Amino acid sequence: MENIDHMGENNLKALAKNNLTDASRRKLSAEIISGMISLCCLAVGLIYTYILKGPYKAVPQLLYFVGFLIEGIPVIVTGVKGIFTDDLTNAMEILVGIAIVACAFHKDLILALLIPLILNSVHILEERSIMGGRDVIEGLKNMQQDTAILFEDGKETTVDAKSLKVGQHIKVKPGAGIPIDGVVVTGESHIDEKSLTGEPEPSHVRSGASVYAGTVNLDGTLIVEIRKEYVDTSFSQILSLLEKSENMSIPEARIVDQFLVYYIPFVLAIAAAVALVTKDVSKAIAILVVSCPCGQMLASPAPMIAALSAATKRGILIKNSKFLESLTEIKTVVFDKTGTITNGVLSLSDIVPYGDTSEENLLRCAKSVAVSSTHPVSQAVVRSTQNLSCPECSSVKEVSGSGMEGISRDGSETIRLGKPEWIAQCGCHIPEDFQPQTPGSVSYVTCNDRLLGYLCFNDTIRDKAKDCVDELRTLGVDQTVMLTGDRTEPAKRIGAQAGIDQVYAKLLPQEKLECLQKLDKTEGKILAVGDGINDALILRGADVGIAMGAMGSDLAIDSADIALMNNNLTNIPYVIDLATKTRNIIYQNLVLSICTSAVMIFLSAFGVVSALSGSFLHNIGAFAVLINSSRILKEKKE
Known about the structure:
638 residues, alpha+beta, 17% strand, disordered N terminus
C-alpha cells in the first residue's frame, strides 16, 4: 500500500467524486485543447493590435469573442444548470459565469476571455497534480492478475482469470501475482501480502494455507486450488469498499452544503452592493471571481481522502461515515477474546479420558468432527493428531458458540466435541468431580451421549494487547470490556494480562449481544472488536464494529464498519486517533477557507485585488486546505 500513501500525500483532492475514467480523461483533453485555442485567439488579437498595429479594430474583437465563446460559454452553461438543479458542486461556475457575463456586457472581452481561461488553466494544473490520486483504485485493479496458468492433467494453459471456476487448480510461479483466492495444494513459498494487510514481512505458506488475490508469490512454485471466483475475491471486495467509501456522506460535508446554500446569495448581494455604491462594475466582477468556494468544497473531501489513504496503507478498510460520526465519541471498547485479544492459535495442553476410555480413542473421536471445522479448538485438535487416523463422519455440523456434532457413516454413533454446558444439554451427565484442574479452554467429548473425557487448550495473549488498551485510555476511553464464550478462569487471566476492566465469560453469541446492550451508553458510544465470525452480532450491535484479521472472511467484511486486514491491535487506537484528527482538520479547513474568502472579498471591494489577479488568487484557500489536510499523512508517517 506504499503506492497509495504516496499518491494520497500528493493528491488529496483525488477520489472526492469519481475516478479518472476514460470519459474524465477525454474531458480533460478537451479542456486543454479549448484552452490552447482560446489562448491562440488572445495572442493573435494582441499581436495584431500592439505589434502589427492593424487598422481594423473589429479583427481582434472578433478573435477575443471567439475565445470567449470557447472558454466562457461552457462555464456559463454549467453555472445555469447549477442554479436550476441546486447542484452545489457547481457553485464556482455559478459565480464565475455571472462574472463573465458582466464582463461581456461591460464590453471587456479580453477579461471575459481571460477569467475562464486562467481558472481552467489553474484547474487543469490541479487535475494533473491530482491525477495519480484519482488513479488509486485503477492502480489497485492492475495489481490483481488478470491471467492465470490453469493446471489440469499435468498440462499448463494460460487463461483469463475471470473464467476460473471453484475447484480448478492453477500454477503460480515465483514472482507472479496470485490472481484469485485459494488454498495451496502443493508447494512452499513466501507471499508478499502488503497490498491486503499492510504487513511488510512476507508470510510463509505451504500445503493447506490460504492465499489471496492481489498478493505476490515471491520464491516458490505453488499449485493452488480455487476457492472463490474472480468477482468474489477478498481483493475485489476491498476495491468495492474503497469505491463506496469515496462517496460516503459525513456530517461535516453536509455542513459545507448548508453553508453554500447561503454563501452564493450572500456573495451576489455583496457584489451588487459594491457595484451600486462604487459605480465600478470591475470591483463587483473581482468579488465574484475571488469568492469561488474552492477551499470550502475541499474542506471535507481532502482530509477524508488523506485519512482513507493513511488507513489503507496499514490494511484498515473504512466502510462508512461512522469513521467520523461515532469513532470520535467512543467511551467503551468491547473485545472478543479468542482471535482478538489472544492469538487464536490454541495448543492442546491436557488430554483427560473418563472411565476406561483410552487417550487414543478420545483423540480419534474428537478429530472425527474437528476436521470439518475452522474453529481454533478444532484446528488445535487436528494439529495435535496429524499422525492419528480417525473414523469418518458422514454428517458434521457446527453449533455456533457450542461445539461440533457428527454422525458416523453407518449411523450408529453420534460424536460431540464442545462446551460442557452444551454437552449437558444434549443429554450427557458430567460428574461434579470430573472438572478441569488446569487453566485454559476446555472441550468435552462424547459418543452417543457417553462421556469420553475432555481436552484442555491454552492460548497466548497478543504482543500488543496491553499497549492497545493503554493507548485507548490515553485517547479518552473510559471502559474496556471482554466478552467471551470461554471459561471464567482463563478469561480473567487473559483480561488481567491485557489490563481490561471487565470480563464476562461463558457467553453464547446471543448472550454477548445482550451483555453489550446492557452497557451504559449515556457517557459515549460503544466500539466492538471481534474476529467477525462468532462476533457478527456484537459487531453489528455496537455503534462501531471493527473486524480483526478480516482478510478472506466475507462475514467479517460484511458485518463490521471497519475491517482490519491484519491482526495488529494497535490499529484500533490508531483509527480512533485518526478519526479525531481528521474531524479537527475538517473544522480547521472550514475556518481557513471561509477566512480566506472573506479577506479576498474585502480586498476586491476596495480595489486591491482585480478580477484578473483574483482568478489566480482565489485558489489560495484551496491550496491552504490541501496543505493543512496533508498533515494527516505526515503525522502518521512520523
